[in-house]
TrEMBL record, chain B:
Organism whose genome encodes this protein: Belnapia arida
UniProt-listed SUPFAM superfamilies: CO dehydrogenase flavoprotein C-terminal domain-like, FAD-binding/transporter-associated domain-like
Keyword match Flavoprotein: yes
Sorted UniProt keywords: FAD, Flavoprotein
A Pfam entry, by short name: FAD_binding_5
Protein name in UniProt: Xanthine dehydrogenase family protein subunit M
Amino acid sequence: MDDKPDGRNDNPASVGRRDLMIGATLATAPFAKAATAQVTATQEGMTGRTEVSLTVNGEAKRLSLDPRASLLDTLREELALTGAKKGCDHGQCGACTVHLDGRRIASCLTLAVQADGCAVTTIEGVSPEDGSLHPMQQAFIDHDALQCGYCTPGQIMAAIACVREGHVGNADEIREYMSGNLCRCGAYAGILAAIQDAASKMRAG
Amino acid sequence: MRPFTYARAGDEAAAIRAVSSGGRGTRFLAGGTTLYDLMKLGAEAPERLVDISALPGLASFDTAGPRELVFGAGARMSDVAADSRLVAEYPALSESLWKAASQQLRNMASLGGNLLQRTRCAYFRGGEPFACNKRTPGSGCAAREGIDRGHAVLGGSEACIATYPGDWAVALVAFDAVVDVAGPNGARTIPLQALHREPGTTPEVETSLARDEMILRIRVPATPLGRASTYHKIRDRESYAFALASAAVALWMEGDVVREARIALGGLATRPWRAQEAEAGLVGRPLTLEAARAAGEAALRNARPGHHNAFRIELGTRTVAEALLIAQRRA
């Protein structure tokens, strides 16, 4: 379940995958050969990087971003926070769920530039500093609420928000308010049990 | 994705000026849940985005007024869905919001942007090699000879049978809502009923808004029909899916007799679809099971099936009937 950043992404200053993808897009544009200079000028003129300030898991970050970048790609590729996952990249699966100013959102459908000035919390930021787990993380382990684990960071971020919103009154309400997070392994029974368990602990704690 | 420039507007007037003077490729950006999604698919390719999502004047809403409910276009779906007065007094409006999308998306999406949500037609979203008159005018309609299970049975044309996917607009149409919009030449008010267009021969033109007109607020006349109302949404799965058929229904009962009824259909038509003939047939009579069924049949009378969607005519009929009985229990 724990998916710490690995060595590949440790240096956000290095050329990222996204830069390479932008290069590839340009190279395959139908008019690239005929008017390379013009395209390059357009590219620079139009995507001129935008300065964005974010507070991510309590740390202030200042980034210079292509306006096209999603918050998800920014977290994963600029900040090496790979907990939030890219499942569908279209807001349909919930694997990318993070909290923006305390509310759960789909980070794949959020332009990073729109989050300028906001506080972002990812799965990497939910556990206390003493190294213990958030009650929701612990409950997911205790109730076997995952199999492959790919959807789990998004499930946990959605579940924490679900409790804070007060949408855990009964099993049906939890199912309704967790429906934005798909689990293709089908661990829903464990996820439901974990949320019910963690909800009481979060309220007590 | 095509490169674009991004700017955050300081106020409504500045946003309208920027979009108006920016030319054809300039668009308003609110929650982004539709626009950014379609940009990733190449179905939208704006050159300039003017972000109106943080404008403070658009975010508020007031459901307590004696004459009308007022919803700022920038209010988030989740906040409005949870409004306790809306839940109690206008359940159809609240349900149309919380039965749409997921809580993540409802936290992002604005009420105004939701009205302008574009179709989920897979040929429109997918593009090449499939023809789509909405995406590329004049290219044809792959859905007419393709998989049309989710496509419209009401309001379609030779050029397009794409379903209007939203829920909120359907409930608003039932309540005679209006939208206040502003553009470079001033403000105007449009009945919600006149906001969305049937596709006809120009399916790429989906609303009566100019490109540089911005929705400021939505207003709903206060009405005793609110309380006995429901938004009944039937889907392939119980939650987080678009409607196969839905009905926004509101009733004003005098004893057992219907004094006034409102019926609008979602998921079945190319635009939010008010069924006034079906409403009229209910007035002055007791609301029996048979009367509810007859209203459903009247609402779908002009429906035309395609290859794979005929079942949704009967489904829509039953959805209307069931919605009427749910609303009746709330009277």
